[in-house]
Design goal:
The structure is a homodimer of 245-residue chains. By secondary structure, chain A is α+β, with helices and mostly antiparallel strands. The first copy, chain A, is built from nine helices and eleven strands. In chain A, helix 6 crosses helix 9. Chain A folds into two domains: 105 residues, Jelly Rolls; 84 residues, Winged helix-like DNA-binding domain superfamily/Winged helix DNA-binding domain (Arc Repressor Mutant, subunit A, Orthogonal Bundle). In chain A, strand 4 and strand 5 form a beta hairpin. In chain A, the strands form three sheets. Chain A has a four-stranded antiparallel beta sheet. Chains A and B meet through strand 5, helix 3, helix 4 and helix 5 of A and strand 5, helix 3, helix 4 and helix 5 of B. The structure holds a DNA duplex (30 and 30 nucleotides). Chains A, B: One of its GO terms (molecular function) is DNA-binding transcription factor activity. Chains A, B: Keywords: DNA-binding, Transcription, Transcription regulation. Chains A, B: Pfam families: cNMP_binding, HTH_Crp_2. Chains A, B: This is HTH crp-type domain-containing protein.
Chain lengths: 245, 245
DNA sequence: CGTCGAGTTGACATAATTCAAGTAAGGTGG
DNA sequence: CCACCTTACTTGAATTATGTCAACTCGACG
């Protein structure tokens, strides 16, 4: 065990104390391995579990009555996932592994100690969840007010930046992994139309595609064409309580 | 001063202690009055302020480069608004009053005491913000995967349920207040098309319109047609810390 | 070698937008 | 109190973006 990837992720924003690290590590005592495509949790399941994603990519999504699917969010290592049942008894979204993945499940009761003993970590969780909320509002504006081409472009840029955030060696190229159908379910489009938009972006010289990987050739132009705004500003930690102990 | 409407709202989920109520009331010491249409805060403004909405309706929204607007969320009394700068230094959304309104501004530093001294209230804030996140994912699915008619229907139902939550005497009729352009900006449609969809819903006998008010005639059918899921389940407070003091 | 899932492309259908013209209601200054 | 403005709402016709259906290619895999 290499230590808590959750603590590592949160440590980007804050110098955690030993005690704080230990408290976070306690959330990752158990591990569960998932194969590509395997479902971790289904919408409406009652469960006390929340997860820290340790390795691999996952996605959260819902199905509508007509059988269509909306992908709500892609998840990368260090993400806290399944957080809808922090608020509710029953899960609001399904969770499935996009690649082989490892998650650390913990019961939400474990958050109690965190809020009681480590108010600064609680504040950090709260701030991170607000940042996630902002990310969702960006997606909302993308789906509500931009063209198909812009939505696909914004998704690609979001993936690039989030991968970069994890691995500083990644510059402008990454393995796509998602099928065009999944991209469609994330952007509210059909797989066929996603295909056309990717071709369009490629013909315009903004991206290149080879095998399963994408290169963002002209990041500035793509961001412009996609109404994409990079939210990777620093978190504002100025209001946080002092560390305990 | 009639006491904290924030505490009143949060008290729906939990029996707050006197000390907890007092701590929340401290967030509402100042008041600011807004006229219909008045902007409280602009996107990208740097500000340490967060607000509790005390009276009236407000909305949060963003503008895109092409001048189009996406309304992110409607806000009702008791809502915590402007929460994007809990995470960031600069505001991610603009805030404007839809009706005459009263807000109580407070500096985010005030949250520090709350997290330090009242972990149970902090947990409640966190849970409520997760519920808001789920509400955003519902909107995402609505915009991404449902028809214009369904989006308008879902917005009407959401408004109905949120108004009911505040005022138990409201049954199935309310004053719309929003213009069709605003409905369009919330649902990702043009004002013209909103108009047609409202007519369609009326012709199908699901709603009635008179002057500025809407009556939901057949709530079940409308919910069905709009892929609407009512999230007003109880919050799960089982994991919260014990009250302090 | 055959099958299967994913990607690609064309022809056609449909939902939503755009443009344009008009009506209704409320507010304001003379 | 009226005449005028302005803003919101309404409706039709033409246009465009996206979806649907269908056929085909390609590579992976058993």
């Amino acid at each position: 065990m290499t230590g808590s990837c959750f603590a590592e992720r949160l440590g980007h924003f804050l110098d955690l104390t030993e005690k704080e690290r230990a408290a976070l590590a306690r959330l990752e005592e158990r591990e569960r391995t998932l194969k590509r495509g395997q479902m971790l949790r289904r919408e409406n399941d009652g469960s006390d579990e929340i997860y820290v994603l340790r390795h691999g990519w996952m996605m959260s999504y819902v199905y509508l009555d007509d059988g269509s699917r909306q992908i709500l969010r892609l998840h990368f290592p260090g993400d806290l996932i399944g957080s809808s049942n922090i608020a509710y008894r029953d899960a609001a979204e399904s969770l499935t592994a996009i690649t082989d993945a490892v998650v650390c499940p913990f019961e939400k009761q474990a958050l109690r100690t965190l809020f009681d003993d480590h108010p600064r970590v609680a504040a950090l969780l709260f701030a991170v969840s607000q940042a996630e909320r902002v990310s969702l509002t960006d997606r909302l504006a993308s789906l509500g007010r931009t063209s198909a081409r812009a939505r696909v472009g914004a998704l690609l840029l979001d993936m690039l930046h989030r991968i970069r955030f994890m691995r500083k060696d990644v510059t402008n190229s990454f393995e796509l992994i998602l099928t065009q159908e999944e991209i469609g379910d994330a952007t509210g489009l059909t797989a066929v139309h996603v295909n056309r938009m990717m071709r369009a972006l490629a013909e315009e010289g903004m991206i290149e595609r080879r095998n399963g990987s994408v290169t963002i050739v002209d990041e500035r132009a793509l961001a412009q064409a996609s109404a994409y705004f990079n939210r990777f500003a620093e978190l504002d930690t100025s209001w946080f309580p002092a560390p305990r102990g």
